[in-house]
Amino acid sequence: MSVPLIAIVGVCASGKSMLVAALRVRGFNARQVMQEHSYVPDMWRQITKPELLIYLDAGLATIRRRRQQPDWPAWILEREIERLRHARAHCDLYVKTDDLTPGEVLDRALALLVDW
Q1: Is the dihedral of CA 88, 43, 53, 95 positive or negative?
Q2: Which of 11, 67, 86, 112 is most open to solvent, judged by the fewest CB atoms within 10 Å of its CB?
Q3: How confident is the model at residue 1 (pLDDT cuts 50, 70, 90)?
Q4: pLDDT of residue 115
Q5: Which string of DSSP letters, residue by residue, matches the chain?
Q6: Which domains are assigned to the chain?
Q7: Model confidence pLDDT, tens digit, residues 40-79
């Protein structure tokens, strides 16, 4: 059984690095793609050429809380959402992480990966 290459994209503070680390510990080939900082719409595809794409999302209030920056600008999130539009349209799994623990986010990813 081959291990798929999994790309993780999403807005800042959505839990990308935590999910990548948790998947790697379990033997998965997961990579975080900093798509939210790129103007290249399909950078996630060009750089990693993944077999699976997971998109993590979070709202402004959650991002501010997680970053411990109550004045983190909304315009940054709006820009990230625009830059991530292509990835969201092509993802294999979309997870809104606002009300989820890191373990619950991992569980949703693992549910996708059960057949791999």
Answers
A1: negative
A2: 67
A3: low
A4: 73
A5: -PPPEEEEEESTTSSHHHHHHHHHHTT-EEEE--GGG-S-TTHHHHHH--SEEEEEE--HHHHHHHHT-TT--HHHHHHHHHHTHHHHHH-SEEEE-TT--HHHHHHHHHHHHTT-
A6: 5-113 (3.40.50.300)
A7: 888 888 888 999 999 999 999 999 999 999 999 999 999 9
